[in-house]
Automatic annotation (TrEMBL), chain A:
Species classification: Bacteria, Pseudomonadati, Pseudomonadota, Gammaproteobacteria, Pseudomonadales
Cofactor(s) the protein needs: [4Fe-4S] cluster
Cited InterPro entries: Peptidase_U32, RNA/ubiquinone_mod_enzymes, UbiU
UniProt keyword annotations, A-Z: 4Fe-4S, Hydrolase, Iron, Iron-sulfur, Metal-binding, Protease, Ubiquinone biosynthesis
Biological processes annotated in GO: proteolysis; ubiquinone biosynthetic process
Oligomeric and partner information: Forms a heterodimer with UbiV.
Residue sites binding [4Fe-4S] cluster per the record: C169, C176, C193, C232
Cross-referenced PANTHER family: PEPTIDASE U32 FAMILY, UBIQUINONE BIOSYNTHESIS PROTEIN UBIU
GO MF annotations, alphabetized: 4 iron, 4 sulfur cluster binding; metal ion binding; peptidase activity
Family according to the record: Belongs to the peptidase U32 family. UbiU subfamily.
Pfam family, one: Peptidase_U32
Pathway: Cofactor biosynthesis; ubiquinone biosynthesis
Organism: Thiopseudomonas denitrificans
Stated name of the protein: Ubiquinone biosynthesis protein UbiU
UniProtKB/TrEMBL annotation, chain B:
Protein keywords: 4Fe-4S, Hydrolase, Iron, Iron-sulfur, Metal-binding, Protease, Ubiquinone biosynthesis
Pathway: Cofactor biosynthesis; ubiquinone biosynthesis
Record-annotated membrane-spanning stretches: none
GO molecular function, one term: peptidase activity
NCBIfam families referenced in this protein's UniProt entry, alphabetically: PRK15447.1
Sites where the protein binds [4Fe-4S] cluster: C39, C180, C193, C197
Cofactors named for this entry: [4Fe-4S] cluster
InterPro entries: Peptidase_U32, RNA/ubiquinone_mod_enzymes, UbiV
Function, in words: Required for O(2)-independent ubiquinone (coenzyme Q) biosynthesis. Together with UbiU, is essential for the C6-hydroxylation reaction in the oxygen-independent ubiquinone biosynthesis pathway.
Family of the protein in this entry: Belongs to the peptidase U32 family. UbiV subfamily.
Protein name stated in the entry: Ubiquinone biosynthesis protein UbiV
GO biological process: proteolysis; ubiquinone biosynthetic process
């Protein structure tokens, strides 16, 4: 299985190359990118340097142009596709049929991967993108159980990539407007979820409060670990009870599933986290490289080393990890 | 302006559904969407049951009946059921997943594109029109301006506009998950949910710790807490290119809601303001009530 690692900066890209990523994915510095965060992503000059380094090391570069184009500014998406093609990237990751159509018509040699934002969770949906846009791979949303990933993989000739580690979206990617409902900005349209500019921390009655566009997302007792107010991970009131009504702050970790993912025929595993630090890219890439190599050398005897587990737990939200939807009980 | 009744997004007992549609058959509606769009485990009506109910209703109303497909399609059984829905032979289908778009375009059947399809621009809309889309319900987060600009983009490509249907009244369907939040609220595993969402005819309210209503839990679907209501914005609906206003079923009071909309479309004065939210229509956070409502 190919190890696909994130880079939101040149140092992160270099770290991923150094630690043995097979492919590194990046995005442009605008709203064509579903990680369009302030201070993140590579300038054109950094991108050129990064691509050069990746080529020298015989690795692959993927570029994500994975938001949905809007009628105003269609030129930005066209330009992003043209630029990706001109760079000779190994693949462009996209979700919007408009972007996929433009790319397949104007740059037939550009490999297209369907982004997780495309929200394709079944064989016929994949056939649509394959027949119309000749996609060469699809990234599946994190809503499927392992048995369902298997069903999808068996029902299509499109090679499948799944999320292996990182922040856990509890909603089907591409099918969540919670962020725009509260803040006006959404992943599909703006490339952000729970945008930093809408966050406000305050100390109220000795308790730390996190707010998003003034909506209280969570309130912490003294000494309680506080996390970024991603709006689906706050504590809310439902039926008179206060709890993480949608999801706890936790990360997805599927290292235990490597043998099963391989047996199912999954072609690539993706690490989430273009918004994370170079140290994150360095450590998570190293742990996963070692795990995948260990599995390749001895598939029958594969087991997750404690050191890998500790590394990943230390990089996780709330220091917790979960198998997420892959494990039916989570659902 | 046509008025449509969206699919019932909640899980109601069979009797309640039957009574609801008997009542709706009498209302001044132009289009009625029917079918399960949220969770395939809800089986007060199975697929044949829905088709049977649609045939009965068609005898009783002049409205066009459309069958809505499931939104999040994960299991092979759901794929098979969707395929049978597309093969029903009588009714147009509303596609809410690309699987439905694929089935319908393979069969060269014209279809309605539901709000769960990610169509945000004229270039994207053109792709779907080429696949058989004849009616477009934009994603609920689209503003009136964005819809208008999308249609103008289509005009510039000399592609005829499809009918445009705006989500004009009801709890907004905002997100879909593998997880069932109703089962979670009742501390049950999803596989042993015992269909507990049938106990909440308008979902479960979710509020902040300060008591601010935020969302409505409806099985695997998360909806807005507020009712999105564009009645005060009626003049701008038509101006921005809407042909159809979609009213989403609620457990009570739908007759009054439809009557209010019908009066306005027949030339009555729209209210200056209404309860609920309309932020998305004005290009703002969806939960906001734009103050200028009624004056724009």
């Amino acid at each position: 299985m190919e190890l696909v690692c994130p880079a939101g900066s040149l140092p992160a890209l270099k770290a991923a190359v150094r630690q043995g990523a097979d492919a590194i994915y990046v995005g442009f510095k605008d709203d064509t990118n579903a990680r369009h965060f302030a201070g993140l992503n590579l300038t054109d000059k950094q991108l050129a340097e990064g691509v050069d380094l990746i080529r020298k090391n015989n690795k692959k570069i993927y570029i994500a142009v994975n938001t949905y184009a809007q009628p105003d500014g269609w030129e930005r998406w066209q330009r992003a596709v043209d630029q990706a093609a001109a760079m000779g990237v190994n693949a462009m990751i996209a979700a919007d049929p408009a972007v996929l159509a433009y790319a397949s018509k104007n740059h037939p040699d550009l490999n297209l991967h369907l982004s997780v934002q495309g929200s394709a969770t079944n064989g016929p949906a994949l056939s649509f993108y394959q027949q119309r846009y000749n996609i060469k791979r699809a990234v599946l949303p994190r809503v499927l159980s392992l048995a369902q990933v298997k069903q999808v993989a068996e029902s299509t000739t499109v090679p499948i990539e799944v999320f292996a580690f990182g922040s856990l979206c509890i909603m089907a990617e591409g099918r969540c407007h919670l962020s725009s409902y509260m803040t006006g900005e959404s992943p599909n349209l703006c490339g952000v979820c729970s945008p930093a500019k809408a966050v406000r921390w305050s100390n109220e009655d000795g308790k730390l409060s996190s707010r998003l566009n003034e909506v209280l997302i969570d309130r912490y007792e003294e000494g309680e670990a506080a996390g970024y107010p991603t709006l689906c991970k706050g504590r809310f009131i439902v039926n008179g009870k206060k709890f993480h009504a949608l999801e706890e702050p936790t990360s997805l970790d599927t290292m235990d599933l490597i043998p099963e993912l391989d047996r199912i025929g999954v072609k690539a595993v993706k690490i989430e986290g273009r918004q994370r630090s170079p140290a994150y890219s360095e450590q998570v890439t190293r742990a996963w490289r070692e795990a995948l190599d260990s599995y390749r050398h001895n598939p029958g005897g594969f087991r997750v080393e404690n050191s890998w587990r500790q590394t990943l737990a230390g990089l996780s939200e709330g220091s917790q990890t979960t198998l997420g939807a892959y494990h039916r009980a989570w659902q | 302006m046509k008025l449509s009744l969206g699919p019932i997004l909640f899980f109601w007992p069979r009797d309640q559904v039957t009574r609801f549609y008997a009542d709706m058959a009498e209302q001044p509606l132009d289009i009625i969407y029917m079918g399960e769009t949220v969770c395939s485990k809800r089986r007060e009506f199975n697929l044949d049951g829905w088709i049977g109910l649609a045939r009965e209703l068609q005898q009783a109303t002049r409205a066009q009946i459309v069958l809505s497909g499931l939104t999040l399609i994960e299991a092979n059984s759901e794929v098979s059921s969707l395929k049978r829905l597309c093969d029903n032979g009588d009714f147009m289908v509303e596609a809410n997943d690309m699987a439905a778009v694929q089935f319908l375009s393979e069969r060269k059947l014209q279809f309605a594109g539901g709000p769960a399809l990610n169509i945000y621009s004229g270039h994207a809309l053109a792709e779907f029109i080429d696949s058989g889309l004849i009616r477009w319900a934009p994603p609920v987060e689209c503003s009136g301006n964005m819809i208008n600009n999308t249609l103008q983009q289509l005009d510039a490509m000399s592609i005829p506009r499809p009918e445009v249907e705006v989500f004009a009244y009801g709890h907004l369907p905002l997100a879909y998950s593998a997880r069932c939040f109703t089962a979670r609220a009742e501390n049950r595993p999803k596989d042993e949910c015992e269909f507990c969402c049938i106990n909440y005819e308008e979902g479960i309210p979710l509020a902040s710790q300060e008591g601010q209503p935020l969302f409505t839990i409806n099985g695997i679907q998360t909806m807005s807490a507020e009712i999105n209501n564009l009645l005060a914005d009626y003049p701008s609906l038509a101006r921005q290119g809407a042909d159809i206003a979609r009213l989403s079923p609620r457990a009570k009071g739908m007759t009054e809601v439809i009557r209010a909309w019908d009066l306005v479309r027949q030339g009555g004065q729209p209210p200056l303001a209404v309860q609920g939210c309309n932020g998305y229509w004005h290009g703002r956070p969806g939960m906001v009530t734009a103050e200028e409502a009624g004056l724009c």
